[in-house]
């Protein structure tokens, strides 16, 4: 007697029958930068460090169902009025997304792909900060679903503003 041990996950055949496919082809570091402009003096600073994290995402269609997704994380640490370090990591991946309607494709590119890339970017940042002589930095998880929902709200608001600024049809 054979048992199905899938932990509730859809079998690959079920996914193909539904027509939607999501595959990770490659994950790679696209760009890395680390600067400690005030080293070694900054190591003796007693000021409480202030951290600022910026996040950006870019998607390129590589043709057909292949997409390059780039997740850029920029972490700036200041101590007092001096920059302790600046680290920027662009973690990228090539993904195949087939069989999704336009709305679902946008959601997959905006949530699932960054979720796959984030742990790699987090590790790269941690390694660079520690390798630069600073205490380990542990980047907290990011809720890409929430960020995507906020981005959708912003896009909808911008679309309403754009439509309200257009002259009424028929007035020439």
SSE layout:
Blueprint: H1 12-18, E1 21-35, E2 49-63, E3 66-79, E4 82-98, H2 102-131, H3 144-164
Antiparallel strand pairs: 1-4, 2-3, 3-4
CATH T-level fold name of the domain at 19-133: Bacterial Protein-export protein SecB
The fourth-level CATH homologous superfamily of the domain at 19-133 is SecB-like
Oligomeric state, counting identical vs distinct chains: single chain
The main sheet orders its strands as 1-4-3-2
The helix-strand sequence is HEEEEHH
Major sheet description: 4 strands, antiparallel
CATH class of the domain at 19-133: Alpha Beta
Helix content: 25-40%
Structural class: alpha+beta
Quickly count the helices.
3
Beta-strand percent range: 35-45%
Query: How far is the N terminus from the C terminus?
Result: 76 Å
Roughly how many Å is the radius of gyration?
22 Å
Structure description:
The protein is of the alpha+beta class and 172 residues long. The chain has a domain at 19-133: SecB-like (Bacterial Protein-export protein SecB, Roll). 34% of the residues lie in helices and 35% in strands. The protein has 3 helices and 4 strands. A 4-stranded antiparallel sheet has the order 1-4-3-2. The model is unreliable at 1-17 (pLDDT under 50).
């Amino acid at each position: 007697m054979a048992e199905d041990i899938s932990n509730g996950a859809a079998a690959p055949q079920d996914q193909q029958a539904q027509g939607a496919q999501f595959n990770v082809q490659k994950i790679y570091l696209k760009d890395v930068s680390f600067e400690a402009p005030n080293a070694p003096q900054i190591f003796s600073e007693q000021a409480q460090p202030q951290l600022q994290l910026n996040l950006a995402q870019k998607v390129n269609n590589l043709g057909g169902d292949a997409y390059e997704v780039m997740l850029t994380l920029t972490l700036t640490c200041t101590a007092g009025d001096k920059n302790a370090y600046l680290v920027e990591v662009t973690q990228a991946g090539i993904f195949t997304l087939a069989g999704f309607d336009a709305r679902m494709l946008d959601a997959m590119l905006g949530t699932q792909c960054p979720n796959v890339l984030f742990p790699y970017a987090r590790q790269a940042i941690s390694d660079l900060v520690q390798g630069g002589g600073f205490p380990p930095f542990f980047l907290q998880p990011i809720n890409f679903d929430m960020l995507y929902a906020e981005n959708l709200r912003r896009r909808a608001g911008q679309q309403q503003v754009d439509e309200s600024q257009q002259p009424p049809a028929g007035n020439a």
